[in-house]
Each structure stands twice: as structure tokens, then as C-alpha cells.
What we know:
InterPro entries: Self-incomp_S1
Family: Belongs to the plant self-incompatibility (S1) protein family.
Distance between the termini: 58 Å
Structural class: mainly beta
Helix content: 10-25%
Strand content: 35-45%
Shape: elongated
Number of strands: 9
CATH superfamily: Immunoglobulins
Largest sheet: 5 strands, mixed
Number of domains: 1
Keywords: Secreted, Self-incompatibility, Signal
Strand order of the largest sheet: 4-1-7-8-9
Mean pLDDT: 84
GO cellular component, one term: extracellular region
Subcellular location: Secreted
CATH class: Mainly Beta
Amino acid sequence: MEISFSSLLVLSFLLFLQQTNAITVHVVDGIEKNNPQLIYHCASGSDDLGKHYPKFKDDFHFSFKRNIFFETVFFCHFWWGQKNIRFEVYRETGACGHETGGSNKGICYWLIKEDDFYFAINDNPPPSAFVRKFGW
């Protein structure tokens, strides 16, 4: 079997992209009085990250590599007393992806508070960097 130089070049480029496009998603509990207990469950189509029972300021985070052939989507379902909501915490064409206007360095934060869900990009964002994305 003969492989052309251009095929090797394309394959090398795709492997390079696969290695360099790591994403880290943080889910931070910002509910000071954690009564009732905040619970969340995060997953993608192929990875189940399980249920979590955080304490105030706990930072659950997970990392993965972008899939260059299919769009990667992670969602989380949140429960807090009688309230619950499910939404995508990562989608290449949405949250934590292109929605950030190209300024994303591969890191995004979701902050859960009593009133709403807040989103920020980049590592260790200051409180002023968070923007409201969803209500309960």
C-alpha cells in the first residue's frame, strides 16, 4: 500500500490538532447556604461523569480533546431543592466554543449561584468576568 506525501501531511496536521485542542470545563458551587444540597450530573454522548454533591466553592472540572470529526457536546443536569435545569456546558458551536468569539483559551467556568448560572472563559476569571447565562 502506497501512501502519498500529501496524505501523510494531512494526517499529521489532524493528529496535531487532536493533541493541541484540549478543553477544560469547570463547574463551581457558588451557593453559600447549601441547604438543600446542590446536585449535578454531567455527561456527553460517550462519557458519563457521574453525580456530584459539592460543597460551597467546590470546583469540579473535567478535560477532554476536541473531536475533529464530530462535534463534542457535554451537558449537566442540576438539582437544587425543587429547582432543576439541564443545559449544555460545552458545545463547539455554542457554550465554551465559538460563542466566545475566538477568545477562549480552552478553559471555561460555570458558576452556580442561588439566583442564576454564570459563565466565564479563561483560567481563574475574576468575579467581574462572569456573565449571567441561565436562570433556575
